[in-house]
Amino acid sequence: MECIEETYQINLKYAGQCSDRIVNRNIAKELYGRSKLVCISQNNPEKIIRVLKEQFPGLEHETAIFGTGNWGKELHTILKNCNIHISFFVDNDDKKWGYEFEGTRIFSPEILKEYQGYVLIAVKEHQEEIYEQLQKYSNANLSVGIYEGIWEKVIEPGGNA
């Protein structure tokens, strides 16, 4: 984890030299936090499990991930490290349907109309649109959460794991 901390400090140093300092510092902070979250999931999964259960009650039973990009794959790794079963991925990109990522199949979001469990939205953009899409399914058995910002609840940059 020391290399993650060092990388963060270097990023902050150079971010201060850029024209858009605030944006670059926020990006460095987010990347640091998300990288550290993956490390914590390997070394201290109980800490992450506690935060996830507080934020998303029932997550440990049935969980799906909405999004198969970097955030979705990262969340998949974290949940696997914490021994939380991932039922499947969903994605709006029909070219991805039917494929797998590390043994977890990717489906159309339509599967969520009948799904009983949690779906975590793990995308950087269009979170609100996806949330609204899921609300239109009128599935009372579907719980929805958003992955963004979870790392902040587990660890703050410069803090201890």
Describe this structure in words.
With 161 residues, the chain is an alpha/beta fold. The chain is 46% helix and 16% strand. It has 6 helices and 6 strands, in the order αααβαββββαβα. It has helices at residues 2-15, 21-43, 45-55, 70-81, 127-135, 150-154, and strands at residues 63-66, 86-90, 100-101, 104-107, 117-121, 142-146. Helix 2 (21-43) crosses helix 3 (45-55) and helix 2 packs parallel to helix 4. The longest helix is centred in the first third of the chain and has 23 residues, at 21-43.
Supply database-style keywords.
161 residues, alpha/beta, six-stranded mixed β-sheet, 6 helices, globular
Low confidence ranges: 157-161
Radius of gyration: 17 Å
Mean pLDDT: 82
> What is the strand content?
15-25%
Q: Care to count the β-strands? A: 6
Helix count?
6
Biggest sheet strand order reads 3-4-2-1-5-6
Major β-sheet profile:
6 strands, mixed
How much helix is in the residues? Answer: 40-55%
Please write the string of helix (H) and strand (E) elements: HHHEHEEEEHEH
Q: Which class of secondary structure composition applies to the elements?
A: alpha/beta
